[in-house]
Design a protein that fits this description.
2 domains; homodimer; alpha/beta; globular; 26% helix
């Protein structure tokens, strides 16, 4: 193994669920990074070599610790992937900052917490500034496709009247917990019951709405949220679940934000084993004369759509945005930018460009 | 007229061609900006009220000056739109910096000059740092669609093997000088002659290639450039030109960048009165059930395409990116970011998010 330069960023991975393990693997591969520790509460992981727990061929020479305080390696940054919710991750972030680390987290509620969690955001910001460290929450959604990228696209607009984003996740190839989170296999009644109990659905739409509205200087006077099941029209079988026709294949979740002038923003998330008619094929006619002769094949899957109505009207479609791969990528790719950012709780809009 | 707050950014518009005039109009409309002066060498403009020259209904109370030194208003920033080329704009930028202004420019060769113009870039950077001011070159292309945006999209990738961008400009609704610049109405022989003389074509492909390669840590060992006419298949008439079948309707310009591993990057610009077969309709099937019921109509025009091959493969298509509107927008929208950026010659990748 080639030894890495000492200027590498030394990272502790906190949380070794599917996303955390993938982040750890990516950091082991990625030039410029040294994975020097890992934290997880799972007794089956604690004490084992990190390399084995994250599925590398060999060992890394560091074991998984039950608590951050048990990690003995010197490190610069904690990469955090545990819970979506402030009431769970707040103490974890506080501990990381007090131990003197910069923090990059996939926690949805941390991505733009100033409006939904003002008190907690102010607390984390003040602590980070006091210890001279930086905290960022990011991911594909929230963190990119429904907030940062639409905002980036407004750079080429002279006026924005409204923004509509539709994110389509083909859940059929995703993790079992993800398929469960969107209600796959439930009856419609079970789905409605779990929804009413607040136990399902995508976390982060309020944060994405708030980042867009706040950055563009709009005040949202009303926010509406709506979730409905996507019902299977045919039998569906994945590695994790079987769904009979009439049962739930996934969900469609819509957030709407209104200003004094009316509806300004809609964020629609369709995460389903079956995308339905409104995700009908969106393919270009086969080019008779390709612009780039060596042009590669297009990725498969449904299209995400960002529409900006204004001057000019823009429509942007994206294909191939895999939620897990993308979340792992952006969380790790943002680390150098977080190291360079001023102390405090920052959001994606504060960083200079984040790239692979 | 409501008087603006004194915290507005005070801008001098330098260059009152079509782009410069549109920038000036946008700054008059845009909250947070005060247009306090303008410079142009055209004797027909010098001494006239800026408001009349840029086509506002009324006067602005400032006249167009022939030289920057003649502008008497206090100002913070110069918005610069004159020439694409360092040998023309270098002295202008130097004068602005020595007069103590931050600078945002639409000059293509300034967008990422470190490789194509290293000596000039170092000179501007050193001067900007000495006087504590910031200089940015930006625009839609270079500045966004072929460099900044593809780089932003790599944030959600774990590996990038190659990048292919195709920019399609429907020139039929563009300015006369633009239609002339792409060869509209020439015979193929005339087109080839002017190309050989270096008097036509899009400026900025080398800068876009360099920004991408440098940011992603790749070394381009070879760059290839190719320009060919797009030949009209039918008679075309615009407000500025008539083109008979067999004559030139526009151009297709391709830049290819190679690393040690082979072709890494292709940037294709098709700017034509007629887009040709390879821009065949790329429309989604009509949704049977729209995701957002109030979804606005899609913009018209050809699609731009960004393909990233890697982990994952991504394809992004954009419609409605109007070159002039977008260049004016991003140049002005970048001004607050430039004011906040450290002193020196910066590029789009150095700024925090730029939005409308």
């Amino acid at each position: 193994m080639v030894s890495k330069l000492s200027t590498n960023i030394r990272v502790i991975q906190y949380g070794l669920g599917p996303i955390g393990r993938a982040m750890a693997r990516y950091m082991v591969e990625k030039p410029g990074f040294d994975l020097v520790g890992a934290v997880d509460v799972d007794p089956a992981k604690v004490g084992s070599d990190i390399g084995r727990v994250i599925g590398l061929g060999g060992s890394l020479g560091h074991v998984v610790c039950e608590r951050l305080a048990h990690v003995t390696s010197e490190a610069d940054v904690v990469a955090h992937a545990t819970s979506s919710h402030f009431h769970v991750f707040r103490e974890q972030i506080v501990e990381m900052l007090e131990a003197g680390f910069d923090v990059v987290s996939t926690a949805e509620e941390l991505s733009f917490p100033w409006l939904a969690h003002p008190r907690e955001a102010a607390e984390v910001d003040a602590l980070a500034k006091r210890v001279g460290r930086t905290v960022l929450g990011t991911g594909i959604n929230p963190g990119f496709i429904m907030d940062y990228l639409p905002l980036c696209l407004t750079a080429i607009c002279q006026r924005v009247d409204r923004i509509d984003v539709v994110r389509r996740v083909d859940a059929s190839a995703r993790r079992g917990p993800f398929q469960a989170k969107i209600g796959s296999g439930l009856t419609v009644e079970e789905f409605d019951g779990r929804m009413a109990a607040g136990r399902m659905g995508h976390v982060g739409l309020p944060e994405s709405m708030d980042m867009i509205a706040d950055t563009l200087g709009r005040t949202l006077i009303r926010r509406e949220y709506q979730v409905e099941p996507v019902v299977a029209s045919r039998p569906i079988k994945t590695d994790h679940v079987e769904v009979q026709p009439g049962r739930v294949a996934g969900l469609r979740q819509v957030a709407r934000g209104y200003t004094d002038d009316g509806e300004f923003l809609t964020l629609t998330m369709v995460a389903s084993l079956e995308q339905g008619d409104d995700a009908a094929p969106f393919e270009p006619a086969a080019p008779s004369e390709p612009a780039a002769p060596s042009e590669p094949a297009a990725p498969s899957g449904p299209w995400d759509t960002i529409r900006i109505t204004g001057e000019p009207d823009l429509e942007v479609r994206l294909k191939g945005v895999h939620g897990d791969i993308a979340t792992v990528a952006i969380a790790v790719n943002a680390i150098p930018g977080v190291r360079a950012a001023p102390a405090g709780l920052v959001t994606m809009r504060d960083l200079s460009i984040v790239t692979v």
